[in-house]
Design goal:
Distance between the termini: 21 Å
Number of domains: 1
Largest sheet: 5 strands, antiparallel
Number of helices: 2
Shape: globular
Strand content: 35-45%
Oligomer: single chain
Structural class: alpha+beta
CATH topology: Archease, Possible Chaperone, Chain: A, domain 1
Length: about 140
């Protein structure tokens, strides 16, 4: 678990899949921590040496924040599992119109330990708290 009280994530017990609880002081930090939690769950193992990093910009739009979170995580998951790339988020902004813009720096990885098949909508509900926002995310494995 990340020790920062304002933003972080932790893995929760789940019978068949993987689940994390994520919190952040704003939607930007909630989305950042959600991505970090998913990457940690996947068990990324080492970067490939000698390959330069890749800069990517993404822009996403959804009907609500939950849909936007799913789109964002699915985009990163696709790049991880299909391209063997892991991305550091350089800039990220989530707007009140349910849009997300991010600038990413990617690096080629050697492998990952857990095969996450999908980010699910199961019990997905971004909640407002006294400290910001929180969400539980279930990943299908």
């Amino acid at each position: 678990m990340i020790e920062n009280k304002r933003a972080g994530f932790e893995e929760l017990e789940h019978t068949a899949d993987l689940e994390i609880q994520v919190w952040g002081e704003d939607l930007d930090s909630l989305f950042r921590q959600s991505a970090a939690g998913m990457i940690q769950l996947s068990g990324v193992e080492g970067l490939v040496e000698g390959i330069s990093s890749v800069q990517q910009n993404i822009s996403l739009e959804a009907m609500d924040y939950e849909g936007l979170l799913i789109l964002f995580l699915e985009e990163l998951l696709y790049r991880l599992t299909e391209d063997y790339m892991v991305y550091e988020i350089q800039e990220l902004s989530v707007s009140s119109e349910y849009t997300l813009k991010a600038r990413l720096t990617g690096a080629q990885i050697k492998s990952y330990q857990r095969d996450i098949k999908a980010v699910t909508y199961h019990n997905l509900n971004i909640r407002t708290t006294a400290d910001g926002y929180e969400v539980n995310i279930v990943f299908d494995i």
